[in-house]
Amino acid sequence: xxxxxxxxxxxxxxxxxxxxxxxxxxxxxxxxxxxxxxxxxxxxxxxxxxxxxxxxxxxxxxxxxxxxxxxxxxxxxxxxxxxxxxxxxxxxxxxxxxxxxxxxxxxxxxxxxxxxxxxxxxxxxxxxxxxxxxxxxxxxxxxxxxxxxxxxxxxxxxxxxxxxxxxxxxxxxxxxxxxxxxxxxxxxxxxxxxxxxxxxxxxxxxxxxxxxxxxxxxxxxxxxxxxxxxxxxxxxxxxxxxxxxxxxxxxxxxxxxxxxxxxxxxxxxxxxxxxxxxxxxxxxxxxxxxxxxxxxxxxxxxxxxxxxxxxxxxxxxxxxxxxxxxxxxxxxxxxxxxxxxxxxxxxxxxxxxxxxxxxxxxxxxxxxxxxxxxxxxxxxxxxxxxxxxxxxxxxxxxxxxxxxxxxxxxxxxxxxxxxxxxxxxxxxxxxxxxxxxxxxxxxxxxxxxxxxxxxxxxxxxxxxxxxxxxxxxxxxxxxxxxxxxxxxxxxxxxxxxxxxxxxxxxxxxxxxxxxxxxxxxxxxxxxxxxxxxxxxxxxxxxxxxxxxxxxxxxxxxxxxxxxxxxxxxxxx
Length: 572
Ligand SMILES: [Zn+2]
Fold this sequence. Notes:
By secondary structure, the chain is α/β, with parallel strands linked by helices. 41% of the residues lie in helices and 22% in strands.
């Protein structure tokens, strides 16, 4: 199968794919005149099609001719070959077996390809070939490595042919062409990230390199963009600054901007943040879908019980409802969903103060804090009261002043929503006390605390039953009291989920409603563990158990629940 052993089979000669001696002679002459390869010439002259030529070679050399389906490409093989090597040699890595790397090529006549590839891959693998048409290979590269591979490649080759001393007109033309390519590249980058379901794009400059990463379902992935993109990083940064109305000339100060793009009929808001780093400007693009954001509480992944209790709480006339969890745990989406519920079911006046305003919500008055000019959460809250709102959303309670103002507001007949950074619901109570709030104020104002995390959902396309790790299974048994655990699943990994085994996210939650007993425990400054235990006795499902339920119903995995609840206890 290795065509090195059959070099003579990979030659274009009389009889191959029905080529006649006369045709071949003519092709040789033409190839010499144009200084291009014989392969290219026979294809250009239309003597055979590429498919005919390659099928004939495959037959003669005893190697496979492939159409390259997504499942032909294994992730470990993809990792072994960078996008720029694949683009440069026009090859697709397919699989690694017995230390050999199988790659698809459209040019088996290039006798140096094998040696060169082994060399650029640091002799990590022996190389074996299968054949596929150039078109199939280009398509597969694009699909596997994503975006821009082709554009970047073209831009690099434009660079290569740039002649020194070209006259001015050419330079103008050339810079226009370059600009158009950069625009195309940035568009491709956005389209690719969005179609991957990314929430963020990170462009990070290093000394001799640039890294482009997407955050998908809360986890960062390399975007697989050719390294040669580094030649265009200034152009890319400028283009991003232009679409977000930022100052192109300013490269020493951080800048924040926003933009809006349309893709396949959907509007997306972009929040752009630029940071000057040692090696150039780092760009972060937050992608906020406008149309798909607002759903309802069950769609966020909350159980029927939590939805029922939470809905009852948010229609109360006053008090504080807190959502807690680390950054990226979906707190904002939950709060906006609550606001949307209130907006559609009541005539209440809603004001928000946020850092930053993440989603535009028609019908709600939204403000953004500017601490650098003294416009803080606390000050905004006090000013808001003069507008006589019914409901207020305070982005985050970070300090005593904000906490006190929020509590005073709640006690004077307003409903206040906010977030806190704590690991579980019960700790939010003690956090407020630690900030210096009097226990009776916490006990009389806070109505409920929702702690939440996001876990990744198993990809439905490659879901399969999976035996859990024995140690984890033992811990789950003792935690749930179940003797026999239900079947659990995992995603094997496929091209639909970028070989992660996951697609999308869902929330796991614990909702602590302050009962009389819990208010008493708060007033007597009891430990968070005691409050937590009492809440469970009163029927609260903990974050961990909520996650285990989701695992047992086949939505996610034990590992994912452990990852998301890190910091809360599994072994108790
Ligand atoms: Zn999958």
